[in-house]
Design brief:
Layout lengths: L9 H9 L10 E2 L6 E2 L10 E2 L2 E2 L8
Antiparallel strand pairs: 1-2, 3-4
Length: 62
């Protein structure tokens, strides 16, 4: 049976666990309709278009 030769230090354990709390970088691309920043593979929140089609009706605050 495999047994560790030395005790894993608190520092090494904390460094390993810190990798799980990192958040992914939001890489916003531009919308093809309105050129507003939008997340890839999601409906644009400013115009409601996705893949060249109107998916949502966005109400304007006027």
């Amino acid at each position: 049976m495999a047994v560790p030769k030395r005790k894993t230090s608190k520092s090494r354990t904390a460094m390993r666990k810190a990798q799980n709390t990192k958040k992914p970088i939001a890489r916003a691309s531009s919308c093809s309709q309105c050129s507003a920043p939008a997340m890839p593979h999601r409906v644009c929140t400013s115009c409601g278009y996705y893949n060249g089609r109107q998916v949502l009706t966005v109400a304007t605050d006027e």
